[in-house]
């Protein structure tokens, strides 16, 4: 770390402690050249994720939108909000871990459906009907038949 006083590039850490609710580390340093002390903060670098929509437009990823879609699909269903929040967090973590900076809405929708299918099948069908834009009853029945076949 470069000394802000003399510009020397070597310093030693005197004290380290968590800061900002454990989201960063505060380090007290001493310059090995001039002996002056200074403070640095170390944080994890998070790269922004961009969602590519069906029309080609782009916007920042927002976990609240994923959660909102699941809440609508689970309306009047016995699915605890905590479960949906956990799923939204897992999806966001999966996307962060993929190291892809641009994610399609299709990929996000598939991840949501995959998880909803295991939580509540009615919510899954509701979400799938909006996400996949079922045009008629035949498309809807095809999806229901797939779901029934998987349960056997």
TrEMBL record:
Keyword terms of this UniProt record: ATP-binding, DNA-binding, Metal-binding, Nucleotide-binding, Repressor, Transcription, Transcription regulation, Zinc, Zinc-finger
Zinc finger map (unnamed): 3-34
PROSITE patterns associated with the record: ATP_CONE
Co-factor remark: Binds 1 zinc ion.
Cofactor: Zn(2+)
Entry annotated with the keyword Repressor: yes
Keyword Protease: no
One GO process term, biological-process aspect: negative regulation of DNA-templated transcription
Segments forming domain ATP-cone: 49-139
A molecular function (GO) term: ATP binding
PANTHER family membership: TRANSCRIPTIONAL REPRESSOR NRDR
HAMAP family named among the record's database cross-references: NrdR
Reported function: Negatively regulates transcription of bacterial ribonucleotide reductase nrd genes and operons by binding to NrdR-boxes.
Family recorded in the similarity comment: Belongs to the NrdR family.
Stated name of the protein: Transcriptional repressor NrdR
UniProt organism field: Dysosmobacter welbionis
Lineage: Bacteria, Bacillati, Bacillota, Clostridia, Eubacteriales
């Amino acid at each position: 770390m470069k000394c802000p006083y003399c510009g020397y590039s070597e310093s030693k850490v005197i004290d380290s402690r968590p800061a900002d609710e454990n989201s960063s580390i505060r380090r007290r340093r001493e310059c090995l050249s001039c002996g002056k002390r200074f403070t640095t903060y170390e944080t994890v670098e998070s790269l922004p994720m961009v969602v590519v929509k069906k029309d080609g437009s782009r916007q920042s990823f927002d976990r609240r939108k994923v959660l909102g879609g699941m809440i609508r699909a689970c309306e009047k269903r016995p699915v605890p909000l905590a479960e949906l929040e956990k799923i939204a967090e897992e999806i966001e973590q999966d996307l962060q871990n993929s190291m892809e900076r641009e994610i399609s809405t299709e990929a996000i929708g598939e991840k949501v459906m995959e998880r909803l299918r295991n939580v509540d099948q009615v919510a899954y069908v509701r979400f799938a009907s909006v996400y996949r834009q079922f045009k008629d009853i035949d498309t809807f029945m095809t999806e229901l038949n797939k779901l029934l076949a998987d349960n056997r």
